[in-house]
Amino acid sequence: MPIIVGNNTADAELFLSVSSAGTSVVHTLDELRRALAEAPEEHAVVLGPGVDLEAAAALADNLRVTRPAVSVILMRRRVDSSVLAEALKSGMRDVVEERDLTGLGEAIKRAHQVYRAVTAPGDRADDAPNGRLVTVFSPKGGVGKTTVAANLCVALAARHLRVCLVDLDLGFGDVAITLQLVPARTIADAVTLESDLDFAVLEPLLTSHRSGFSTLVAPAQPDGMEPIRGPQVSRILAVLKRSFDYVVVDTSPAFDEPALQAFDETDELLLVTTLDVPTLKNVKIACETLDLLGFPKSRRHLVLNRADDKVGLSPDKVETTLDMRIAQAIPTSTEVAKATNAGDPITASHPRHPVSRAVNRLADTVMGVRSASATPVDVHSAAEVRSRPTGARRAAPKRGLLRRAGK
Ligand SMILES: Nc1ncnc2c1ncn2[C@@H]1O[C@H](COP(=O)(O)OP(=O)(O)O)[C@@H](O)[C@H]1O
Ligand SMILES: [Mg+2]
């Protein structure tokens, strides 16, 4: 049960009213440390508005290493960007405004989910060599695949995870341009590499983005590129999965060879749709193709981009047509393209923007931490800065359902 550090009675009573029975209140950080030592199964610590920010950050920094299953939730009278930056740096999971008791309740709920994910038996087997691979796919172009992939990378990297974005849209890949990267090398350079590919060979081909993740981009001029064969894609992804916590794959709008190979390695598939009939029809057909390929439904997550576009189709209709729950809705905003044009995904440049909040909740889903709700347009008031421990949850062993010949 959460332990709350509150140094005045009124605050403490307020917190208790949103928290569950069994919550305890202490008055100082020393008392908190003693209480934690006696509570090996603790999942959340709430630091009230009276707790000094520097001391709170030092505590969070320490707990991140010594007790990764414990989420630190910071309450502040006002949440501004300097508080958020400090919280992000020290690894706090949530920052909530003092008056936002709904936000606090939700943060505590999420802390419990993180605890369960982190401590789930079998999830952190030492011999599990792999990071997780997230493929962002849609059978339509222009629906936001690259936008979702790039922003998701920002959100995951902000949680101190090692992240690599791979552009498998080899014909028209625009990860590099979306992130305004000037890559020295591209995936085309990997094509000529021999089969004994390892990370030492691949690393020089990666380009870093200033938000803290790596990319393996597609060549700007695909024409001269030697066609990349399926087994090479597989090998590249397998090597990256061993070296990163998350490999996020952006795809072309087709079931082409690179996409099919990526599906083989995919732990979570983000299927992007928008509220228009042609896209919906194509996504429906794509779902049927995924059924034929044997891609498990449990690993598919529907992302409704531009969820608030008023085009006559409702999110409900999308869910019933596809017989799938919307895992995350992302609103429309002109700020998305503006941020891209400035070279920073919106999640990096405007972390409190509704689009960024939605992306952060998508990151929760990807990490196996279910959102409390998936309303069409995300309006949750809890702060969006949430750090998760490295490798919060590992994938179950791959079943190899899509293993294709020739690998
Ligand atoms: N939620 C959104 N709100 C506003 N514009 C968006 C949103 N998502 C994507 N866009 C814009 O739509 C265009 C296509 O997005 P992109 O990610 O390149 O699609 P895809 O990779 O599926 O072809 C880009 O100009 C992008 O900035
Ligand atoms: Mg794209």
Sequence-ordered SSE layout with sheet pairings:
Blueprint (H helix, E strand, L loop, with lengths): L2 E3 L3 H10 L5 E3 L2 H9 L6 E4 L5 H14 L4 E6 L4 H10 L3 E4 L3 H19 L12 E6 L7 H13 L5 E5 L7 H4 L9 H4 L7 H4 L4 E3 L3 E4 L13 H14 L2 E5 L6 H9 L2 E6 L3 H17 L6 E6 L9 H8 L3 E5 L3 H8 L4 H4 L4 H13 L41
Parallel strand pairs: 1-2, 1-3, 3-4, 4-5, 6-10, 6-11, 7-9, 7-10, 11-12, 12-13
Antiparallel strand pairs: 8-9
Helix pairs in contact: 3-4, 6-16, 10-11
Adenosine-5'-diphosphate (ADP) binds next to helix 6 and helix 14.
Protein name: Type II/IV secretion system ATPase TadZ/CpaE, associated with Flp pilus assembly
GO molecular function, one term: ATP binding
GO cellular component, one term: cytoplasmic side of plasma membrane
Characterization of this structure:
This is Type II/IV secretion system ATPase TadZ/CpaE, associated with Flp pilus assembly. GO terms for molecular function: ATP binding; ATP hydrolysis activity. The protein has two domains: 3-119, Response regulator (Rossmann fold); 132-366, 3-Layer(aba) Sandwich (Rossmann fold). 39% of the residues lie in helices and 15% in strands. The chain has 16 helices and 13 strands. The chain has helices spanning 9-18, 29-37, 53-66, 81-90, 101-119, 145-157, 175-178, 188-191, 199-202, 230-243, 257-265, 277-293, 315-322, 334-341, 346-349, 354-366, and strands spanning 3-5, 24-26, 44-47, 71-76, 94-97, 132-137, 163-167, 207-209, 213-216, 246-250, 268-273, 300-305, 326-330. The strands form two sheets. Strands 8-9-7-10-6-11-12-13 form an eight-stranded mixed beta sheet, with helices on both faces. A five-stranded parallel beta sheet has the order 2-1-3-4-5, with helices on both faces. The longest helix is centred in the N-terminal third of the chain and has 19 residues, at 101-119. The chain starts with a strand and ends in a 41-residue tail after the last helix. Mean pLDDT is 83; it is low at 122-129 and 370-407. Bound molecules: adenosine-5'-diphosphate (ADP) and magnesium ion. Magnesium ion binds at residues 145-146, 169, 174, 250. Adenosine-5'-diphosphate binds at residues 138, 141-147, 305-306, 330, 332-333, 336-337, 340, 355.
